[in-house]
Known about the structure:
- 34% of the residues lie in helices and 12% in strands.
- By secondary structure, it is α/β, with parallel strands linked by helices.
- It is globular.
Amino acid sequence: MAQRKPKIELARAYDPPAPDRSFRVLVDRLWPRGVKKEELPIDAWAKELAPTTELRRWFNHDPQRWDEFRKRYFKELHDNEGKVSELLEAAGRRPILLLYGARDQQHNQAVALKQWIEKHAAELKPQSKE
C-alpha cells in the first residue's frame, strides 16, 4: 500500500510558531543555534533525514552548488526511504511542517526534502509494525 501525498509546508526554526495542527519536524542534524529546546515546539527531530555532515559541509549553503547538493541529498534520501516512511506515518493525516535553521529560504535541506517527498511519497512502502 502506497503512502498518501502529504501537504508539506516549510518554516524557519527561528520564526514564531503558527497556531495550527501541523506535525512539526525539525530537519536539521544540528539544533538551531540560539534556540532553547523548550522554546521550539516540535513533534519530531528527524536528524537522520538531514544531509550527512560531509554533504552539509560541502554544500555550505552555496547557491552555486544547489543542483549538485540536491542530487547528492536525493541519493541519501533514497538510501533512507524507511525513515521518510516513518515520518509520514507519524504525521498521519496532519499537514507536515518542516523546520530548518538556515538563513537561505530557497537553498536548504528542507526545500530539497519537501521536493523529494512530494515526488516519491506515492512509491514509499509503509513500515511494518513489528
